[in-house]
Design brief:
- Two copies of one chain form a homodimer.
- Chain A is an alpha/beta fold.
- Helices cover 53% and strands 12% of the residues of chain A.
- Chain A contains 13 helices and seven strands.
- In chain A, strands 3-2-4-1-5-6-7 form a seven-stranded parallel sheet, sandwiched between helices.
- In chain A, α5 links the parallel β2 and β3.
- The longest helix of chain A is centred in the C-terminal third of the chain and has 29 residues.
- The first copy, chain A, is globular, with a radius of gyration of 21 Å.
- Chains A and B meet through α3, α7, α8, α11 and α12 of A and α3, α7, α8, α11 and α12 of B.
Chain lengths: 320, 320
């Protein structure tokens, strides 16, 4: 374990915000330093409440996150936010607009907000999300909000890392059917109809409740509630917070919490393996051998499977 | 090459729709049969026009697809649609609602509509999408529409497999900023503001045009147009079709078409390698060794990286 990473972990435990930010970069970037950080952090305390906030772009997740920050701060508790941004597969850029919208909390020392870009490597987010949560726990935050941007692979990482997953929809937003199509019904512990001052709330609630009755509930004894909010003016936030607390009580009382800790360990190990394998594939697909094989596929001298066989043969030789 | 797959390819070339449907299942499922199908299909003719239709859930992609089907059929040409559905990471189920909405075309022999579920294996969709397009080309369809459901990894596969990518947004849908956040700006060749009978069209157009000026255009000489449509009543569809045809002319004239064929070959080979590697990881993460390692991580006897090392060691041993 490098002394630099050990120092960052120690400083993070002492409440140093600069060290915390650096340590989050370390786990985000992966590789040897992330490995050292996990070793230095030691086992997860698993005492923080981890709330995932997911839903389609434009549903108001950032406004809801801001309202939940205010709700937590009203109790005096500190809160950390991890905003999981999509990285465009094409440019590698992440958008920071959501952070701007949370600036109202930027001068509050009890609030820590961080954007984490999803890495291109498959498994990277799956691995980095629980590791980043472990860093925030080490820094002593009793609440961690995981906000996602977009729908897709990201939800899997968030659902795996959170204790309570909020799925945010809007009235008339494809009548809730879209939430089902996007695979969000299975991962939600609490459903939020945000922008509930618009038309179509009753229909969206009815659709959600009907589909939730049909679909498998995430925890067997837990019936996910549907809460109406208007995040920008705070309407429904108190009720939403009570639902989050009820869900946490359910997790503890039912033994589901222990099952989620086990699932998280499985997910992290799987994420590490996938990330390592795809990183090796990415390296192989950036080299001269790959270019040669692809040119032969284009020239119709080789079919794509034969090209893949040759590339994997070269990868295995390189690994030995 | 198995005789069954060769027979399916022959029957598909003769116009047998049942064989076509079976052959699509073969490439979708991957493995040895997909490999044989690619060998039997031979090199891609690359004569069909392939139009990708992407955007957030609820933007009206299915309605737009239905309108484009009608536009193609008006010329007498046949058209195939591949609707790429999300498979929930948790249940493995795909939703077929979009097919229902296209039923108006179900009795037309010149239209072939097929849903393809995205497979859990990373790379699976990247591999299967160009292979399915090759099957539809072999069946003689001069136009193939690739409609996606949801935003995320799916877009990468569609952008890689299509000649012309339509990005569908709505007026006021997060002011077009959401399209940027979701990484859609870089992949779009034509932008469609659908539901343009609603408020906010001018703002959305302005936002898109401003961001497009800032962002790298996909083809260097091509300035992506922004087209307003109301898919459900056909408004703007003629203008959209002209934009698609202009883009195809640009691809041919600029040499960009050849560059896309090369990129597609690279993507298919990479997809095959990733799919094989992640399938092997999935097998390893379903076995007793993985369960034993995960239990030791939960018991804090082993850190997640050490568990990953042990698992990869077991995988390599198994491969030898």
């Amino acid at each position: 374990v490098t002394s630099r990473v050990v120092e960052l972990v120690d400083a993070t435990r002492r409440g140093d915000r600069v060290a915390l930010a650096r340590l989050l970069s370390v786990v985000e970037n992966g590789g040897r330093d992330a490995r050292d950080a996990v070793a230095a952090l030691g086992p997860l305390a698993a005492v923080a409440g981890i709330v995932g906030i997911t839903g389609a772009p434009g549903a108001g997740k950032s406004s809801l996150t801001a309202a939940l920050i205010a709700r937590v701060r009203a109790t005096g508790d500190r809160v950390a936010v991890l905003a999981i941004d999509p990285t465009s597969a094409f440019t590698g850029g992440a958008i920071l607009g959501d952070r701007v919208r949370m600036q109202a909390h930027d001068t509050d020392d009890g609030v820590f907000i961080r954007s984490m870009a999803t890495r291109g490597h498959h498994g990277g987010l799956t691995r980095a999300t629980p590791q980043a949560v472990a860093v925030l726990e080490a820094a002593g935050y009793p609440w961690v909000l995981l906000e996602t941007v977009g729908v897709g692979q990201v939800e899997v990482a968030v659902a795996g890392a959170a204790d309570t997953v909020l799925v945010v929809v809007n009235p008339g937003w494809g009548d809730g059917v879209q939430a089902n199509k996007a695979g969000l019904l299975e991962i939600g512990d609490v459903f939020v109809v945000n922008k509930a001052d618009r038309d179509g709330v009753a229909e969206t609630r009815r659709d959600l409740e009907a589909m939730l009755t049909l679909s498998r509930a995430r925890g067997e004894d837990w019936q996910p509630p549907v809460i109406e909010t208007v995040a920008i003016n705070g309407r429904g936030i108190e009720e939403l917070w009570r639902a989050i607390e009820s869900h946490r009580e359910h997790l503890a009382a039912s033994g589901e919490q222990a099952r989620r800790v086990e699932a998280r360990a499985r997910q992290e190990v799987r994420g590490i393996v996938l990330e390592q394998l795809t990183a090796e594939a990415d390296i192989a697909c950036a080299g001269p051998k790959f270019e040669e094989l692809a040119a032969r596929v284009v020239a119709r001298e080789l079919d794509p499977y034969a090209a893949a066989d040759e590339l994997r043969g070269a990868m295995q030789k390189g690994a030995q």
